[in-house]
Task: inverse folding
């Protein structure tokens, strides 16, 4: 393993830990909401606020931190299934996206093959011109 790869693996996961600590500090010391803390860290680091939040919640779950949810409390009424939360629907969307991606890759491969053919033809023309001009 290269030195850089070893350094990368040694620091792997530290960003989430740092974000978690920073959010906790802002919430505790400055009495801001987590959402505000995510935005501040986003502004400071250049990361998207959603990425900051995802890192925070991932580490919070790893640490077993209880997280309050907004809105309805559990058991306060019938749960309606939200559209798009079904695992099979998500898998179907992912399959469709992969199919679209595969189609794009195939088109690019065809385009590259055509460009390579054009380059070969241009090289032949160049060699012919060099022989006939001299």
Result:
């Amino acid at each position: 393993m290269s030195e850089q790869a070893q350094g990368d693996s040694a620091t792997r996961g530290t960003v989430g830990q740092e974000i978690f600590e920073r959010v906790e500090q802002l919430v505790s010391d400055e009495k801001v909401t987590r959402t505000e803390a995510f935005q501040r860290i986003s502004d400071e680091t250049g990361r998207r606020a959603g990425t900051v939040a995802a890192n925070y919640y991932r580490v919070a779950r790893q640490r077993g931190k209880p997280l309050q949810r907004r809105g309805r409390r559990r058991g306060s009424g019938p749960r309606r299934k939200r559209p798009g939360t079904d695992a099979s629907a998500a898998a179907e969307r992912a399959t469709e996206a992969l199919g679209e991606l595969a189609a794009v890759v195939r088109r690019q491969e065809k385009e590259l093959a055509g460009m390579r053919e054009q380059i070969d033809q241009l090289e032949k023309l160049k060699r012919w011109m060099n022989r006939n001009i001299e």
Notes: The chain has two domains: 8-67, 86-134.
